[in-house]
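Obj: model holo form, ligand = shikimate-3-phosphate.
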Amino acid sequence: MKNIYLVGFMGTGKSAVGSALARKKKWQFIDLDGLIELREKRPITDIFAKEGEAYFRRLEKKTLKEVAKEKKFVVACGGGIVIDEGNIRIMKDTGIIICLKASPGKILERVSGALHRPLLNVPNPKERIELLLKLRSPYYAKAHKCIDTSRLSIKEVVAKILKVSSGRNKKQYLKI
Ligand code: S3P
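Output (holo structure tokens):
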């Protein structure tokens, strides 16, 4: 297998799970948003505010294409990466896609206080979370496997991913 891509809504644990998973597998961990910020030398909020979301999505795709050339990478993707069919194709062609999920309440709890998520910097973030989850659920469903992290520890989520991404399961997922 080449890479493991972690997708899913903001606050579902992609970065925390991704780095723990990479440590366990002795693979490289990369946070796609982190890489974009490094390249752009500014935070995502700044990119959204000054250049707009469409510009950010172009950067996201370009960065994904680069990372997809690697092998044995655990890649934590931004929550909106799945809305582009081309991005799903790139990830499926170069690895396995695991979608992390959580309830809107849990997401709110995990993201509250964090101001670095421009899409949730609105007067009613709970409403925004529910709306975006509804709009994005058909896209998240395209992942090879979905895991609800609401009641699981990082260790438990990692164990589940290790199970689906190894042995016989791996072959089955890579056919999709
Ligand atoms: C976004 C999620 C963010 C980041 C950007 C847009 C989204 O990443 O890519 O703010 O559209 O859901 P995280 O999911 O890592 O917070």
